[in-house]
Amino acid sequence: MLVTGLEILAKARKEGYGVGAFNTNNMEITQAILEAAEAKRSPVIIALSEGALKYGGRALTKMVHELARDASVPVAIHLDHGHSYESVLRALYAGFTSVMIDKSGEPFDVNVAETKRVAEAAHAVGASVEAELGRLAGVEEHVAVDEKDALLTNPREAQIFVERTGIDFLAVAIGTSHGPYKGKGKPFIDHARLVEIAKLLGPDYPLVLHGASGVPQELVQRFRAAGGEIGDAHGIAPEDIQKAISEGIAKINTDTDLRLAFTTRVREVLNAEPAVFDPRKILGPAREEMRKVVEARIDLFGSAGKA
Description:
The chain has helices at residues 5-15, 27-40, 50-70, 85-93, 108-124, 155-165, 191-201, 217-225, 238-246, 256-272, 279-301, and strands at residues 19-23, 44-49, 75-82, 98-101, 128-133, 137-140, 143-145, 169-172, 177-178, 207-209, 249-254. The chain is an alpha/beta fold.
């Protein structure tokens, strides 16, 4: 069933669990997300980036919309990292129930003005709105920020930003980063900063954690064993995620883990069966591997049984 992001996240914040926002680019990824959510009876957010929309076009949007509408659990369709007012309007016109406007690279006043304009448009058609304050390091499609340029979210600025823009949930920069290489050494979450932000915004306000993939080492090793090349990849520790949820995080973004699971299983199948050329025999196992990843994330976030 289609719902807004706020409908899902307000309940999650109030009851103290997190909800996964999983990025999709095709049918198999979307099916894996929804099959896992239904098996676990969990609400879920399906995220499409501007890159995904460029890749899949209207066909991808329509497919995600149909599958989400027919699901037996609450599903929000979310625009991830929308970079312009126009791209947000296109998403709203296409039936997205939740949108993110990302002007975090702009000066504070510009971010406020552009975000407020988006919030007014989205709320007029019943959609929810996310924005970002502060900048995450790492790379996510065309989003690239050097670590030295990454700015952590200022708690007082976060309070002012939410008050002036009227957004429904805020993505905070508290130490995580996009991609499979999350900092040098153990990735960190600035829990003290998160607690302060949550205190200023209130006990019911949903916060969002980007760059939150776990990058399971078992998958990393399998990827290498199957011929893949990846550096010293590592993600956010499970205990850090759960602590962040207890401190105010309600939406946890996951993309890298799905990409890693998909590609690892495709490599394994092709290595084991060099004669196979039926796409279903290649993509089917990859879909199952991604479903396992989504189920594990749902269990970690505590959203199982919350549908």
